[in-house]
Write a structure and sequence with these properties.
The complex is a heterodimer. By secondary structure, chain A is α/β, with parallel strands linked by helices. Chain A folds into two domains: 214 residues, Rossmann fold (3-Layer(aba) Sandwich); 66 residues, no CATH class. Chain A contains nine helices and 13 strands. In chain A, the strands form three sheets. Chain A has a six-stranded mixed beta sheet, sandwiched between helices. A four-stranded antiparallel beta sheet of chain A has the order 11-12-10-13. A three-stranded antiparallel beta sheet of chain A has the order 2-1-4, with helices on one face. The longest helix of chain A is centred in the C-terminal third of the chain and has 21 residues. Chain A is globular. The N and C termini of chain A lie far apart (54 Å). Chain B is mainly alpha-helical. In chain B, 56% of the residues lie in helices and 5% in strands. Chain B contains 28 helices and eight strands. In chain B, the strands form three sheets. Chain B has a four-stranded mixed beta sheet. A two-stranded parallel ribbon of chain B has the order 1-2. The chains are: A alpha/beta, B mainly alpha.
């Protein structure tokens, strides 16, 4: 498989659920590598990923996924053949073993020959460290192990496009590190779209990040550029500053602030999370002003 | 024996299934997957215990069902014990390790048919683990135990007649398959796995085809069950005879195809109606429809019987019918295929599906028309000839003054009938005359196809006075002795047209008939044959009836009084030679209805039993 055409382009994408606007004219382009989607709950991340994973039709807009248009039957089929998808809440057949479940998905991914299919199933389960428990029923596995079963099925066949909706939810810190390592090797050359609430995952994994707020893209760029949005607006102090937009006590017992720093404040290097919070704060402020007016 | 029959197949299944899986996975056998199967079998056996217990356990001790049911229940509980949730183990697989693993080249993308077949294997595996399917298999095991062993020794009749039961025996498993498959088809929605599966390139219609491809499993189970049942029946000493012809093959094939029909119905319902009770409603509705089809027209000729999923059996003997068994098979095949295509049409309605649907419907319609067609002229003529002139195509043998004639497919029973009748014939005096026991059509003309009826008149049903109608299938041997005994003393073998019996309370000929009928029987059977079904009843009619008057299908030909039955048992206690001599010497007197029972007892040196109950005849019931 090649990554030369592993590009995803979204133009004017709209999606409504009744009166709720989930996506409001999204324009974005994703290149090979790991692309992170950040945003609060209800921002439209999952809706966007579901549309890109071809399981939800858009109301309006244009998509080009891996050079194909998934709104057509043929394009959708082509995309699905090159897609690995982990839904936000993947349903598992709990009486299946992990092996049986991934094997079932492998068949649905058109691996009909048993020998190569079973080899591939064993391979992806080994990748996520489940080789010792692959024949246990999923109902007996812990939440983190089930998440890894979900990740394993998404990796079947080394897909050109990986759509992962909150893949690290339920994973402990060590497992998150393993996941990052895995993505770095297994998805090299592929286009990876992942949504997460873990900004440190974005900082560690993503070459490109998109921040979605209220169905609209508020930022697109690199994690460094996102962090830079908070440059000069993050400071530490011994006491809480009432003028700050956000403030919390760090592990060292000092108070970290985001907002307009007072004169002489001890500015610190911003993180991706700081940049994201600056964006989210602006958005919340704009919304409250709009409501007030 | 029963325990072996019930438990051994399950253990074999466990070892074969678990062993193969273990070899494939190189791990220990996980027998827990068999819990639904053993649970289902336990449930079916518990049902069998209740049924057999309720039936009075005649010939089938309840413990034979309770013991394995308890064992299987205990096994199920042990197997189904939920293990602890596995602790979140470390993620030991590393990228470095991953680098050493490379998937084989999958080659070209598999075709939809290959994917459907692969899915079919998975769905067959899941079907085998379903508790509903387990209940169905349990019913098969129960059927095997009951009909293959417990009651098999009593079986006598033609293979043709027995094999006609195949569809009925298949129905419990088929019904459970509908439920199990519906659960399987709606599994993804229940588990919310639909979104993940929808993101895969396999089309929903191919997934539907995958479910349909699990049909070989219930078909194989049904085929195996019926074949094993056949061998078990033979091994248990059942006396079955006659050829196993092409019609029997069609009967078995139709039962096996019902397995596929059950899968198709379960898939179609799962695709169109996700409501959990839908398959239950469908199974009940089809059952009711089948009964309705079997009973259209009451007791008269009903050409719609072959359209039932389980056509009525035990009616008209085979030489008087033209069963369209191959058309019935075509009907079941067409119907199953049409339902399968309807399942596919939920997500795919292209030209090939439309054509497949049209072909399936055409097959079903054509077979339905064929199954309900008028009898061909040649078949009508053959049946009419068998009714009007049965002697033209029968095989006969003689024992003393009694000749026994049967249609060719019953020649296997000729020896049994002779053995049963010979002791009676041996004690008949010369002046009793000669009799012929002959298989004849002894039903109403309106139970024959109209094409046959128009070739016959009521006069064609009249038989010579010295002829005693011989039964068919199980009745052939069972009733031969009693019917002959009644006829030789001038009693009828059937109730009259109003189902009214002949009352012989206080008549010597009634006691003579009972004594004759018990010739050749062992003492217990002889005593049972001359004892009322309810001797303590306050009803004089019931005290004098050897048949169960509570039986909704009882239509007795002859009713005695309680005193006559007691007299008959007293006569049975006398030396046979003495009774034979006295009965033979005064034959003309003892068969005279005016001569009383006490006169016969006096001649035999026994005490009188009168006065006799005043038994008032009342009509019986006919099923």
């Amino acid at each position: 498989m090649t990554s030369s055409i592993s590009t995803v382009t979204v133009t004017g994408l709209r999606k409504r659920f009744g009166a709720t606007v989930a996506l409001d004219g999204i324009d974005a382009a994703f290149t090979p590598g790991v692309n992170g989607l950040l945003g609060p709950n209800g921002a439209g991340k999952t809706t966007m990923l579901r549309i890109l994973a071809t399981v939800l039709p858009a109301d309006d807009g244009r998509l080009e996924v891996l050079g194909d248009d998934p709104s057509t039957g043929g394009g959708r089929l082509t995309v699905r053949r090159r897609l690995g998808y982990l839904p936000q809440e993947p349903g598992f057949h709990r009486h299946f073993s992990g092996f049986e479940f991934v094997d079932y998905v492998a068949i649905l991914k058109e691996w009909a020959d048993r020998k190569p299919r079973h080899d591939e199933v064993r391979r992806v389960l080994t990748l996520v460290g489940l080789e010792a428990v692959m024949h246990k029923r999923i109902g007996q596995l812990s939440g983190g192990m089930r998440r890894r079963v979900g990740i394993a099925q998404a990796l079947l066949g080394r897909p050109d496009l990986l759509v992962l909706d909150e893949p690290t939810a339920g994973l402990d810190p060590e497992q998150r590190l393993r996941f990052r390592e895995l993505l770095g090797t297994e998805a090299s050359g592929a286009t990876v779209l992942l949504s997460t609430h873990q900004t440190d995952d974005v900082a560690a994994l993503c070459q490109h990040v998109v921040v979605l707020l209220a169905g609209q893209i508020r930022f697109t760029g690199t994690p460094t550029e996102l962090a830079a949005l908070a440059s000069g607006r993050v400071w530490l102090a011994g006491e809480r500053d009432p003028g700050a937009d956000l403030a919390w006590i760090t592990g060292e017992g000092r108070v970290r602030h985001i907002g307009e720093p007072p004169t002489g404040a001890q500015l610190v290097e911003p993180t991706v999370e700081d940049g994201y919070l600056i964006l989210a704060g602006r958005d919340a402020h704009a919304n409250s002003e709009a409501l007030a007016s | 024996m029963i325990v072996l029959v019930l438990v051994v197949p399950l253990l074999v299944a466990a070892l074969v299934y678990g062993g193969r899986e273990a070899m494939r996975r190189r791990e220990s056998v996980d027998l827990r997957r068999l819990a639904p199967l053993t649970g289902g079998a336990a449930l079916a056996l518990a049902f069998g215990a209740l049924t057999v217990g309720g039936a009075g356990s005649d010939g089938a001790p309840v413990w034979l069902f309770v013991a394995p049911a308890v064992v299987l229940t205990a096994g199920t509980l042990a197997l189904a014990r939920r293990g602890p949730v596995t602790a979140d183990g470390r993620w030991t697989g590393s990228a470095a390790q991953a680098a050493t693993l490379t998937a084989d080249d999958r080659g070209t993308v598999a075709s939809a048919a290959a994917v459907a077949r692969a899915l079919g294997r998975v769905e067959a595996r899941e079907l085998s683990r379903s508790p509903w399917f387990g209940v169905g298999v349990g019913f098969c095991v129960l059927g095997l135990a009951l009909f293959g062993f417990v009651f098999a020794g009593e079986d006598t009749g033609t293979w043709d007649g027995q094999i006609q039961l195949s569809s009925w025996l298949a129905l419990p498993l088929v019904g459970m398959v509908v439920l199990a498959v519906h659960r399987a088809v709606t599994r993804a929605a229940r588990d919310r796995a639909d979104e993940l599966f929808d993101s895969c390139p396999t089309a929903p219609a191919t997934r539907t085809a995958g479910f349909l491809c699990s049909a070989p499993l219930p078909m194989a189970i049904l085929g195996g069950f019926l074949v094993v049942l056949g061998f078990a029946v033979v091994a248990s000493g059942a006396h079955l005879y006659g050829p196993i012809g092409a019609d029997s093959v069609a009967d078995v094939a139709a039962a096996v195809v019902l397995g596929a029909g059950g899968v198709a119905l379960g898939v179609a319902l799962g695709r169109w109606v996700r409501f959990g009770l839908a398959p239950v409603v469908a199974v009940v509705a089809i059952g009711i429809a089948g009964i309705q089809l079997n009973t259209i027209g009451g007791s008269g000729w009903n050409r719609f019987v072959p359209l039932s999923t389980a056509p009525a059996v035990g009616g008209t003997p085979p030489m008087f019918t033209d069963r369209p068994v191959w058309w019935h098979l075509g009907w079941i095949v067409g119907l199953s295929a049409a339902v399968g295509v309807a399942a596919l049409a939920r997500h795919r309605r292209d030209q090939s599906v439309v054509i497949a649907g049209a072909v399936a419907v055409a097959v079903a319609v054509a077979a339905g028309i064929g199954a309900t067609r008028p009898s061909p002229t040649s078949a009508a003529a053959r049946i009419a000839a068998a009714v009007a002139m049965p002697e033209a195509d029968q095989e006969c043998t003689a024992t003393g003054p009694v000749e026994i004639c049967v249609f060719p497919i019953y020649r296997g029973a000729l020896e049994d009938v002779t053995d049963r009748v010979a002791p009676i014939a041996a004690v008949l005096p010369a002046d009793a005359g000669r009799f012929t026991l002959r298989q004849v059509y002894d039903r109403n003309l309106d139970e024959l196809p109209p094409e046959v009826r128009q070739l016959l008149t009521e006069a064609d049903l009249e038989r010579p006075d010295d002829e005693v109608p011989l039964g068919f299938e199980g009745e052939l041997v069972e009733l031969a002795g009693s019917d002959l005994a009644r006829r030789v003393v001038g009693l009828p073998v059937e109730p009259d047209d109003d189902l009214m019996p002949t009352v012989v309370a206080g008549q010597a000929r009634g006691v003579v008939a009972l004594w004759l009928a018990t010739r050749g029987l062992d003492p217990d059977a002889a005593a049972a044959a001359s004892t009322a079904a309810d001797p303590g009843s306050a009803d004089a009619f019931a005290r004098g009836s050897v048949e169960d008057v509570e039986d909704p299908c009882n239509a007795a030909a002859v009713v005695w009084s309680g005193q006559d039955l007691a007299a008959a048992r007293a006569v049975l206690a006398l030396p046979d030679e003495d009774v034979a001599r006295i009965v033979g010497d005064g034959w003309g007197r003892w068969i005279d209805p005016r001569v009383g029972t006490d006169e016969l007892l006096a001649a035999l040196g026994l005490d009188p039993v009168g006065p006799f109950d005043e038994v008032v005849a009342r009509p019986g019931n006919s099923c």
